[in-house]
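Reading group handout, session on sequence-to-structure problems. Before we discuss, look at one worked example. The prompt was deliberately terse, the way you'd type it at a terminal:

> structure Amino acid transporter transmembrane domain-containing protein

The input record follows.
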Amino acid sequence: MQRSKNFLLIEAIATLIGTIIGAGIFGIPYVFNQSGFWTGTLALMVVGLAMILMKFMYGEIALRTPGIHQIAGYTGIYLGKIAKRVISLILIFSFYGALLVYFIGTGEVIGALTGMPAIWSGLGFFVVFSIFIYFGITLTKRVELVMTIFMLIAMVGIGVLSFRQIELTNLSGWHWDLFFIPYGVLIFACSGTEAVPQVRQILKGAEHKMKSALGWGCAIPQVVYWLFVALVISVSGAKVTEVASVGLGELFGWQMILVANIFAFFAMATSFLVLGLALIEIYKFDYKLSGPTAWLLTVSVPLAAFFLGARDFIGTINFVGALVAGLAGILEVVTYFVARRRGKRKPEYELPVWLGVAGGIFLIVLFIFGLTYTLKP
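And the output record:
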C-alpha cells in the first residue's frame, strides 16, 4: 500500500510539472534577454514564489471542500454565482488562449522536425491530442508521467550538445526599471493552478501527500526554467529567438534541432493534455454538460481561432499570463480567504494564518501591478 501511495505521489508531481512546463519556457529566454539576465532571475524568483504560494492556497481550498470541483466550482461555493460566472469566463478564456499557444507552438516545432508546413503539423497534433483528452484522466495522467520523463531527458540532451559553446559572460544585465518585462511570460509559465484539483483526484486516499506534491511539482519547473534560460542565453547571446528551440537549432545544426524541438514538443503536449482535460471538467462538473459536448466546446474554439489568424506566439503568452491569469488570481485569493472560514472538511495541511493573510495581500498587489503594466500604452 505504501508503495502504491508513493507512486501516486510521483504521478501527481508529474501531472503538475507537465501542466506548468509548457510553451512559456520557450519564451522566457527572449524576455530575459530584453530585461537583462539578472533582472529576469529576480522576476523569476518573485513570480515563482508567488505561484507556489498560490498552489498551496488552492490545494488547501480543495482539501477543505467535499466533492469534485474545478476552480470555477470552488469559487461558486465560496463567493456565489456571480463570482463563479466571472471567473468561469476568465478561466475559459485563459484555457483557450493557452491551448491556442500550444497549437501554434507544436506546429512550429513539428514543422522544424519534419519540414512540413506549420499549419498542417499543428493540425495533426491538435487532432491526435484532442482524442487523448477525450478519454479522460486515466489515460492523461499516464501519458503525462511518460512525457514528463522524456521532456527532462531532452533537457539534459540540450545541455550536453551545447556545453562547449557556453559563454558565462553572456549572463549579464541588471535593469530594475525593466523588471516587469518578463512578468506576463513568467506568470504564464509558472501558473498551472488548474491542475491542483486533478492532483487531489490522483491522491485520493493519500491526501496527506498533497503538500509535498504541490511543493515539488512547483519547485522543479522553476529550477528547470532557470537552467534552461541560463543555457540558452549563455550559448546564444544576443541571438536569442522568440521561440528558443528554433534559435538553438539554427545555431547548432540538426542534432540540436532534433533534441531541442523534441523537448519543446513534450513540454507543450503535456500541458495541452492537462489543460484540455481541466476545461472539459469545468463544462462537465460545474455546468453539467455531457462529455461529448464538453469535449467539442473545448477543442473547437482554439481550432477556429487558429484558422481565423490568431497565431502570435509571444503576444498570446504575455496577454494570457498577465491579464487573464492576474484577474483569475485575485478571485482565487479571495476564495481562499473565505474557504478558511467556511470550509466543511478538515484539510490535511493548512497555511499559518499570518502567511495566508500576508501572502494573499502580496499576491493581489503583484497581480494588480502586473495588470497595470500589461495594459499600459
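Points for discussion. First: The chain has one domain: 2-375. Second: The CA atoms of residues 15 and 132 lie 15 Å apart.
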